[in-house]
Amino acid sequence: MHIDEPIKFFGSAAKAAKAIGYNRVCFNDWRKKNGGIVSPKAAALFVSASKGKLDFGFSHYANAEVDTKEAA
Question: Does the pTM of the predicted model rise above 0.85?
């Protein structure tokens, strides 16, 4: 899940972070370190907080697993 999705759904990064009990600073970290992709745990929490209206976005996480397998 890209950070823009929960921000758009909840109205702001602060509101999105509050909805899952995270600090807004996490959004800056995800943007800088993960190319805007939230952690899998946060994605699951956003799906739950949105009552299923937000999509987990499994494709964002599948590529990381494929890269790991290819490197091994």
Answer: no
Position 69 confidence tier, pLDDT thresholds 50, 70, 90: very low
Look at the chain and report how many structural domains it folds into: 1
Q: State the CATH number of the domain containing residue 20.
A: 1.10.260
Q: How far apart are CA 44 and CA 13, in angstroms?
A: 16
pLDDT grade for 62, boundaries at 50, 70 and 90: confident
Block residue for tokens 């929960």: 6
Helix (H/G/I), strand (E/B), else coil: 2: strand
Q: Are 60 and 2 in contact (CB under 8 A)?
A: yes
